[in-house]
Amino acid sequence: MTPLGRVRAALPRLPVRRGRPDRAPRTGTSFKDPSFARSLALFKAFLREQDDPQSCYSLLARDAADQVEAYGGPVAGRVVVDVGGGSGCFTEEFRRRGALACLFEPDLRELGEKPPDGAVVADGYLLPLADAVADVTFSSNVLEHVCDPQTFLSELVRVTRPGGLIYVSFTNWLSPWGGHEWAPWHYLGAERARARYERRTGKDAKHTLGVNLFPVHIGTTLRQVRARDDVRIVSARSRYWPFLTETVVKAPVLREFATWNLLLILRRCPV
Predict the structure, then answer these.
(1) Angstrom distance (rounded) from CA 99 to CA 82
(2) Residue 91, class by beta-carbon neighbours within 10 Å (0-12 exposed, 13-18 middle, 19+ buried)?
(3) 3-class DSSP assignment, residue 268
(4) 75, 97 contact by CB (below 8 A)
(5) Where is the Methyltransferase type domain (predicted)?
(6) Which residues 6+ apart lie within 8 Å of 270 measured at CB?
(7) Nearest Cα to 93, choosing from 144, 157, 138, 31?
(8) Across the strands, what pairs with 235?
(9) CA neighbor of 170 nearest in space, from 134, 212, 109, 221
């Protein structure tokens, strides 16, 4: 049985909702997007990530699922492929909303002790899926961790059906959070920032530039996506910013610092 077939077999035990999509129950954050209240809530959650990761990523998952449904409609009964979703918070949230969701994660350590049923250890460069099987392909904060973003994006497109939605979000290198746990000192150089983090905390840094963290830039990514003929951009916006979310992305140079995290909503073009 294929990985997706195993997920379909497991999902009947989950609360899959049927019926009219506009009557499907919602389990979202209730925040307006964008808004100061939403951005503040997410920022506070990020500050508590180390102490309370479950609450942080649960809120982020609900917020991301809200965004997917805002651009693509309710996910109930639809196939959602979550690529690089770590321990499965996003997958579980999509399932709570009735989606046929499957997690593909390459790192066993990120999966944790209790990954979602049907989770598959797989590389995002080569997903064990046939072409055009997903209604929604979802990737949250993964692109900056792959050394070949174009190939990674091509694989997301390949497994998405024509007319399907592709959600891609990433933290760009020149963002204040671009260095991840050793930000914002990455502005002074990656090695210096990493050494400072280890000296200050007394523990090894999770990320190493050129190994599991790569300098991805907004302008370059947008040019690469616009050059493709198999997708069109529905929205290119700041994922977390409270206002002018698309305007800031249109400003060269400024966007590399002010966007913080780029959200790309793509639509797979008809074959």
Answers:
(1) 11
(2) buried
(3) strand
(4) yes
(5) 81-168
(6) 162, 163
(7) 138
(8) 265
(9) 221
Residue 6's closest CA among 97, 110, 122, 109? 122
Pairwise CA distance, residues 7 & 246, whole Å: 36
> Which residues touch 29 (CB under 8 Å, ≥6 apart)?
38, 41, 59, 62, 63, 66
Q: Over the stretch 90-135, which tens digit does the pLDDT of each residue have?
A: 999 999 999 999 999 999 999 988 899 999 999 999 999 999 999 9
- 258: exposed, middle or buried (Cβ count in 10 Å: 0-12, 13-18, 19+): middle
Q: Quick check: 138 and 85 in contact, CB under 8 A?
A: yes
**Helix (H) or strand (E) segment spanning residue 227:** none
Better pLDDT: 110 or 22: 110
Per-residue CA distances from 27 to 50, 65, 95, 98 (Å): 25, 9, 11, 11
111 Cβ neighbours under 8 A, 6+ residues apart: 86, 87, 88, 105, 119, 121
pTM, 2 dp: 0.90
For residue 137, give the 3-state DSSP assignment: strand
Instruction: Count CA within 13 A, CB hemisphere, residue 206.
Output: 9
Q: H helices within the chain, ranges in order?
A: 3-10, 36-47, 53-72, 89-96, 108-111, 149-158, 190-201, 218-226, 254-258
